[in-house]
Design a protein that fits this description.
437 residues; Rossmann fold; six-stranded parallel beta sheet; 16% strand; globular
């Protein structure tokens, strides 16, 4: 048997196992996360330092939690200048894309003097979580901070786990500076989410928390939702590829592996009605897998959470894609734009052979923080609206209240809310008595 199973779309049991959400027993983890967060709530910075020492192996004082200007200067000196140019190019493209999403407040006057509208304002403070430790994710910094900056957020606070020596990867720091992050703190995990949600002596509480993390971070975000806003509850990364006979099996396998290498729970699904192509993609996966540094992680993801599915035709492939509602959807078909109108559920859609998923991760411009685990049925990618709030504006004139007031009274009374009705009725009565409204 190969590294990835090949199944028929008619195999209901196996197909159902792919569609089912990955369920993890999180009761014990949730209790541990809640205990960590309560300790941060109670003891603030002291808890942050203790947990950073325990989980990250970094011994930091309270004063060392915040990245200093000197550390930022050292980061700029340490990074490769060509990489810095690429980061700046990515920043420019991401910024231009998100500027197109920007909405403005609006007001609509009516002939009777009524003014209705919507006030659209940025959040005052947001916290962005960026995975760290031994890894470096400058792209995640850009994808979270830039739309917040475009929205006009007053203050952007970033948290990221330090390395064992107490430092933060220089590329992560440089990305933060380039994207306009105001403060960076060397703290990660559930304790970082707690600090952003509750506030500590060093970290001011925020209005919303965005950014991906491990299961501890996700559970922590779920626990604080309601006290602060969150973007979404992200699960393991996933890609679904729909292909016809025109697809290059080498490209398809490479794209599937680009997600499988994320972690052992990642998912890569390939849908095609071409059985020869299916076999060739399976062979390519075997071949390319042996060349990957993260081979064991990718192999586990392919074996346990991935599959090649042979369908009865392109239409069935597209229908199944909508059922999966994947984070990333690739259309490796001869006429991808002809299929686009049939896609209803996907976080990001990549059209054609030269739009592999990693272009979206790094440089295309659209956000790479996307809904996972089927939540693309009702969630959208991270965007400028994530960092804004909307207030309705209502200004009734005397004439409009006289005209519409009786209808409001009737609707309030049918709901049994007499005080609601009276709030309008006293104004109507005042008008009848000659009293100015």
């Amino acid at each position: 048997m190969g590294v990835i199973r090949i199944i028929k779309a008619t195999d209901a049991e196996q197909l159902s196992s792919l569609l089912d959400k990955r369920i993890t027993n999180i009761d014990e983890l949730a209790a541990r996360v809640a205990a960590i967060m309560e300790e941060v709530r109670q003891t603030g910075d002291a808890a942050l330092c203790a947990f950073t020492r325990r989980f990250d192996g970094a011994s930091l004082s309270t004063a060392q939690l915040k990245v200093s200007p000197a550390e930022m200067e050292q980061a700029y000196a340490a990074v490769d200048q060509e990489v810095l140019k690429s980061l700046r190019l990515a920043k420019d493209r991401i910024e231009k894309f998100h500027q197109k999403q920007l909405s403005r407040s609006w007001f609509q006057p009516e002939q009777d003097g009524t003014i209705l509208g919507q006030l659209i304002l940025p959040l005052e403070r947001v916290g962005i979580y960026v995975p760290g430790g031994t890894a470096s994710y400058p792209s995640s910094v850009l994808m979270n901070a830039i739309p917040a900056k475009v929205a006009g957020v007053g203050r952007i606070i970033m948290v990221t786990p330090p390395q064992a020596d107490g430092s933060v990867n220089p590329y992560t720091l440089v990305a933060a500076a380039e994207a306009g992050v105001d403060e960076v703190y060397k703290v990660g995990g559930a304790q970082a989410v707690a600090a952003l949600a509750y506030g500590t002596e060093s970290i001011q509480r925020v209005d919303k928390i965005t950014g991906p993390g491990n299961i501890y971070v996700t559970l922590a975000k779920r626990l604080v939702y309601g006290q602060v806003g969150i973007d979404m509850l992200a699960g393991p990364s996933e890609v679904l590829v729909v292909a016809d006979g025109s697809a290059n099996p080498e490209y398809a396998a490479a794209d599937m592996l680009s997600q499988a290498e994320h972690d052992r729970l990642a998912s890569a699904i390939f849908l095609t009605h071409d059985e020869d192509l299916a076999i060739k993609v399976g062979e390519e996966l075997e071949r390319q897998l042996t060349e990957l540094p993260r081979q064991e992680i990718a192999r586990s993801a392919l074996t346990n959470y991935s599959a090649i599915v042979i369908t009865d035709g392109l239409q069935e492939s597209l229908a199944l894609a909508n059922q999966f509602a994947p984070e990333h959807l690739e259309l490796l078909v001869a006429q991808p734009f002809e299929c686009l109108g049939q896609i209803k559920n996907a976080g990001a859609i990549f059209l054609g052979a030269y739009s592999p998923e990693p272009v979206g991760d790094y440089l295309a411009g659209p956000n790479h923080v996307l809904p996972t685990s089927g939540t693309a049925r009702f969630y959208s990618p991270l965007n400028v609206d994530t960092f804004m709030k909307k207030s309705s504006v209502i200004s009734f004139s005397k004439e409009s209240l006289l005209q519409l007031g009786p209808d409001i009274v009737r609707l309030a009374e049918v709901e049994g809310l007499q005080a609601h009705a009276n709030a309008v009725r006293v104004r109507l009565k005042g008008s009848e008595d000659g009293v100015s409204l």
